[in-house]
Amino acid sequence: MFKRQYYYLIAGLPDLALEQGVQNFNLRALLDEVLEQVHPKDQLLVRQLFLAYDHQNIHNLLQGREDLFDEKAWYSLDFLKENLDHPEDEMPTYLTDIIRKFRLGHELGDSSYEYHNMAHFAWSRFYQTINEYSKNDFLRTWFSFDQILRNIQSAWMCRKLGMSIEEQLVGYEEEIEAFVKNNLPDFGLKRELTLGEEI
User: Fold this and answer.
1) Alpha-carbon distance 46 to 62, whole Å?
2) DSSP state, 1?
3) What is the pLDDT of residues 26-70, one digit of tens each?
4) Which phi and psi angles does 73 have, rounded to 5°?
5) Is the torsion defined by CA of 79, 85, 88, 94 positive or negative?
6) pTM more than 0.85
């Protein structure tokens, strides 16, 4: 993931086991500890791992849901509340795009800017931004997998509930069509993905 090797940092990370749960695990504290010990250029890579929390927080704040604020995000609640009306230049462009699109929709009274559509737009811009602008192969690969997995979960639930799949998926048109047009129980995943059978 990083050009620099952090053997001491990795050796000091807490041991986590899925079957033991995460009762005493504090992700924010771990993030702060990691950021203190890595090179400034690598801090930017670590931040990219947590960008999704920021766009979810912005989305919820714009909907008046401050109670859903997630502390794992990079930007604090106070910072976001101060800057929602005038997004800061230091924020990634896709975050300011989300804010501006929401504000414009409200000014126009456009129903397409409702909660679900804004969430869909936010996730689309997030994956697009990582894919196009991240220079780190690991991050691009990880978030590509994350997008595929979320789409698989959404497509499966839509099929189960009899909902339109096309409106729920995030990605390029040809990727979404692959789900929409595939009538196989597994969406043809066994043939298309290395992890298809496990998923």
Assistant:
1) 26
2) -
3) 777 888 888 888 998 888 888 888 888 888 898 888 878 888 999
4) -70, 165
5) positive
6) no
**Integer CA distances (angstroms), 43 to 12, 17, 32, 34, 38, in order:** 18, 26, 10, 8, 6
Determine contact, residues 72/81, Cβ cutoff 8 Å: no
Integer Cα distance of 139 and 49 in angstroms: 7
Distance (Å) of CA 40 to CA 4, 23, 34, 92: 11, 31, 11, 17
Q: Two tokens at 59?
A: 């989305």
Chain-centroid distance of CA 108 in Å reads 28
Phi, psi angles (nearest 5°) of residue 193: -120, 145
Please give the span between the terminal C-alpha atoms of the chain, in angstroms, as a whole number: 25
Residue-wise DSSP of 180-193? HS--STTTTHHHH-
Distance CA(104)–CA(110), nearest Å, equals 9
